[in-house]
Amino acid sequence: MSTVQGRLRIAVQKSGRLADRSLDLVRDAGLRVIKGNNDLLYRVENYPIDLLRVRDDDIPTFVADGVCDLGIVGENVLEEGKNGGTNAEVVMPLGFGRCTLKLAVPPTLDYAGPASLDGKRIATSYPRILRRYLDQQGVAADIVVMRGAVEVAPRLKLASAICDLVSTGATLEANGLDAKETVFESQAVLIRSPSGPEPALAHLLESIVERISGVVSSQG
Ligand code: PRT
Ligand code: ZN
């Protein structure tokens, strides 16, 4: 059973690049969000709904497990977190949080296509998405997992290339790296639990999904 005490739960990023837009979206969908007495949970006063505010990395698992019924997360995080078990289902793309996971190299590397990375080390926070891409390209490279500051890896000789999210390109430029290949295109998505909410909340969940869909298409 997915929810606690007859309330739907929506998982949103607590702070970070998706946090404000996620709150705006649910507010635009008609949910009156009020801060509860703790930072982790915001309550919705006009519906039996709570917002669970967490690290974005935790959102796919919470939704897959039915701890939350809905969630808003970057497709990149969802994709990287996929495993052989049950995964959260994508309801719709939300049109914000757009970014691209790209391979980038320093100009000193003689780059003529993905095959140039054969036998090289590539730093990334997205080892699974990168591995799948490299396998598709038939490239055998070593992946160095870094949780942050991936863009400094070539300068520190930790890796020959990087695979990182890019939005404006300013970070790559500041670090003297050239974007080469697009590995994955991402934006924020609405996800839902495969198990569904408790029956009494099923109708509410569908109507919230419909309202969010209406907001997103009006912004389209
Ligand atoms: O604390 P928590 O774990 O929740 O947050 P986080 O630090 O893991 O994520 P956060 O808030 O940085 O990003 C949340 C989501 O925003 C990501 O998972 C993406 O779906 C999306 N997003 C959109 C981005 C970017 N744009 C982005 N530019 N995430 C990260 N970046 C970083 C990128 O890694 C690089 O360091 O910004 C830098 C590049 O930006 P530009 O503009 O210089 O190209
Ligand atoms: Zn994160």
Automatic annotation (TrEMBL):
Its EC number is 2.4.2.17. It catalyses: 1-(5-phospho-beta-D-ribosyl)-ATP + diphosphate = 5-phospho-alpha-D-ribose 1-diphosphate + ATP. This is ATP phosphoribosyltransferase. It is an enzyme of class 2 (transferase). Its main location: cytoplasm. It comes from Brevundimonas vitisensis. Residues 55-213 form the ATP phosphoribosyltransferase catalytic domain. Signal peptide: none annotated. Keywords: Amino-acid biosynthesis, ATP-binding, Cytoplasm, Glycosyltransferase, Histidine biosynthesis, Magnesium, Metal-binding, Nucleotide-binding, Transferase. GO terms for molecular function: ATP phosphoribosyltransferase activity. The gene is hisG. Catalyzes the condensation of ATP and 5-phosphoribose 1-diphosphate to form N'-(5'-phosphoribosyl)-ATP (PR-ATP). Has a crucial role in the pathway because the rate of histidine biosynthesis seems to be controlled primarily by regulation of HisG enzymatic activity.
